[in-house]
Structures are given as C-alpha cells and as structure tokens.
Amino acid sequence: MGNFKVHGIFQTGILVSDVEECLRLFRDGLGLNVVFDARNQIQSAKELCHGVENQTMNVLMLRGDDGVDLEIHQYVNPPAHPCKPLEHTDIGSSHFMLRVTGIEEVVKKVEELGYEMMTPVIASKTLPDFKFAYFRGPDGMMVELQEGSYMRKKD
C-alpha cells in the first residue's frame, strides 16, 4: 500500500453560530475539557472563506478523557451563513459520537439543557452492552451518544 499509514481521527470540526452555547452544552453540561480557546483570531486562509483575505474567528478545542478533540469554529467577521440542518439521510450529512457511561443520565442532562433527542436510547440486538441515542445540538448538529464496549478494549 505504500509508505504511509492513516492512524485514526485526530479531531472533528464543527462550524457554529455561538461558541458560548457550545461551552454550555459540552463543557458545563457534559464535562468535556477546554484545551484551547482562541477568540477573535485572524484566520489567514482566504481559500476557506470565499476569497476573504483575513477572516476573524473564535475557535475552541474540547477533549474528553479518551483524547479525541472536538474543534468548534465560529466565524465572527464575516459571519457564517446559516443553513437548515441536514437530515441523517441527506448526502453530506455528518454526526459525531461521544463515548459515555450512564447513557440514560446523559440523555436526561441533554434534555435538561433544552436539547431534543432524535431517538430514545436504543440497545443493540447484535452487539452486547451497546446502546446509542442521537440528539440535535447547537445549530442542529447531530450528536450521537454511545455506551458499550464494542469500540473499546476491555478493561
């Protein structure tokens, strides 16, 4: 296959309209740690923003105990263009999965924070101890919660 190797996912990036709302959900509500917080930073990559030479952004990097980063971007100037959230069956739609313990309690916390579940907690019929549920986060992003051992080495 050549002299290269893809080792895995380093981070997932999400574009949002309000980084403070993301902090309320992911840091304050669900307990992810902020490892990077840069506000009103100049992003000098005009290719990313339709020819704008120096756009201003807010960027957060959040991390759970297992180490994969969730990167949150907010365009300040020029502001990002709002759009309707994609449905799960739309080509190009995406979601990210948060590994959790106590999935029913996590769902309760998500709902207390005012977010609507897309599914109830579903127990897999083929994977022992595997449960999942989806909800819509800020700006309609799809977030999956996952509890179980199929993706993790047994402790």
Give a verbal description of the structure.
A hairpin with a 7-residue loop joins strand 6 and strand 7 (131-136). The chain folds into 2 domains: 11-77, 2,3-Dihydroxybiphenyl 1,2-Dioxygenase, domain 1 (Roll), CATH 3.10.180; 95-147, 2,3-Dihydroxybiphenyl 1,2-Dioxygenase, domain 1, CATH 3.10.180. It is built from 2 helices and 8 strands, in the order βαββββαβββ. The strands form 2 sheets. A 4-stranded mixed beta sheet has the order 1-4-3-2, with helices on one face. The protein has a 4-stranded mixed beta sheet with strand order 5-8-7-6, covered by helices on one side. Helices cover 14% and strands 34% of the residues. By secondary structure, the chain is mainly β.
Set down the secondary structure blueprint:
Elements: E1 11-15, H1 19-29, E2 33-43, E3 55-63, E4 69-77, E5 95-99, H2 103-112, E6 122-123, E7 131-136, E8 142-147
